[in-house]
Specification:
- This protein has 336 residues and is an alpha/beta fold.
- It is 35% helix and 23% strand.
- It contains twelve helices and 14 strands.
- Strands 8-9-10-7-11-12-13-14 form an eight-stranded mixed beta sheet, with helices on one face. Strands 3-2-1-4-5-6 form a six-stranded parallel beta sheet, sandwiched between helices.
- It is globular, with a radius of gyration of 19 Å.
């Protein structure tokens, strides 16, 4: 059975998601509709990606009967309200990271989805790449020995990018990029950190453009994270054990890793109908198919990116922001 997708927003990440779907069989995935705030943009997007229905409002898509699931590629601050809108209209939801602006919103949203008996997942696409599955197998079979430390460096020179730089758009590297580093740590250690130690640098609008974080886990295990929009970093994740290490290259979307034996393992991506805007976005195909499999089985979440995984990430992000002094209106509303 083909999963009928509705796309929310006609921006770059939505473009890449549509391209990724074009690498999958049309018998399994169908682009059924797209919605944007301006109908002209939706129509232009629909023409490019051969989508039969284009809407000039998000509510019109919510009321459209011939869609099973909504992919939300809108701005961070819209995620909570838009996800609620589509859940309330009986649609499953795959929402881009961050799931919401904070833990409280994320908890309310996942609880609401459960009450509606609908699937929802944060788009932690990294975990669905074959390299992540290979890494997990190596850890489980003891190739690394005991995993003791994870190091992640993630940086690109994008501090002037509006969605990152503006508080009103839910900006900052903790929410936009930090999720990737945090989820990688969680993928390795499989538990919530016991302590978060963070420092950061804010821009003139009061959102973070650079963070350095230490996540402390049970048994003295630790994850050291640097995330920045000021400069390009190595963009690798090192998983260090008592017997050796594995390195994920382009760790947030890896098609290669350096194994314990020093050999490079590679999983090439297929090309879609159009070039993508971001690195390795064809790999969004893996999470799309995982979502389809979950829904076919009647699941309300996926066991690789569970609701609890998203809630742990949201808690860590909240604590990082608390320590470095980044406060959004959504946080202040909780205290009223």
């Amino acid at each position: 059975m083909a999963l009928r997708w509705g796309i929310v927003s006609a921006g770059n990440i939505s473009h890449d998601f549509a391209v990724a779907l074009s690498t999958l069989p049309t018998t399994d995935h169908k682009l059924a509709a797209v919605a944007a705030r301006q109908k002209e943009r939706a129509e232009e997007f629909a023409k490019l990606h051969e989508i039969p229905n284009a809407f000039g409002s998000y509510k019109e898509l919510a009321e459209f009967a011939h869609v099973d699931i909504i992919y939300i590629g809108a701005l961070n601050r819209q995620h909570f309200e838009l996800s609620l809108l589509y859940l309330d209209h009986g649609k499953h939801v795959l929402c881009e990271k961050p799931l919401c602006m904070n833990f409280e919103q994320s908890k309310r949203l996942t609880d609401h989805a459960k009450n509606k008996q609908l699937f929802i997942m944060e788009g932690i696409w990294s975990r669905f790449f074959p390299a992540y599955h290979y890494l997990q197998k190596q850890i489980k079979k003891g190739a690394l020995g005991e995993l003791k430390e994870i190091e992640v460096a993630f940086g690109n020179k994008i501090s002037d990018t509006e969605r990152l730089a503006k508080k009103g758009l839910g900006g900052g590297v903790t929410l936009d990029m930090g999720v990737y580093a945090i989820q990688a740590s969680q993928w390795g250690f499989k538990e919530a950190p016991q302590k978060v130690i963070a420092k950061g640098e804010l821009n003139e609008d009061g959102v973070d453009k650079h963070i350095e974080v230490e996540l402390q886990y049970s048994g003295g295990r630790v994850s050291k994270i640097v995330v920045t929009s000021k400069e390009k970093l190595a963009n690798k994740a090192f998983f260090k054990g008592t017997k050796g290490q594995i390195t994920l290259l382009d760790f947030w979307c890896p098609t290669q890793l350096i194994d314990v034996d020093g050999q490079i393992r590679e999983w090439p991506l297929p090309k879609g109908k159009h070039p993508t805007k971001y690195t390795n976005s064809e790999g969004l195909r893996f999470e799309a198919e995982a979502v389809r499999q979950s829904i076919l089985k009647g699941g309300l979440e996926n066991d690789i990116a569970t609701h609890n995984d998203s809630l742990i990430i949201a808690k860590v992000q909240d604590e990082i922001r608390r320590q470095i002094g980044v406060v959004f209106p959504e946080d202040e509303q909780l205290n009223k």
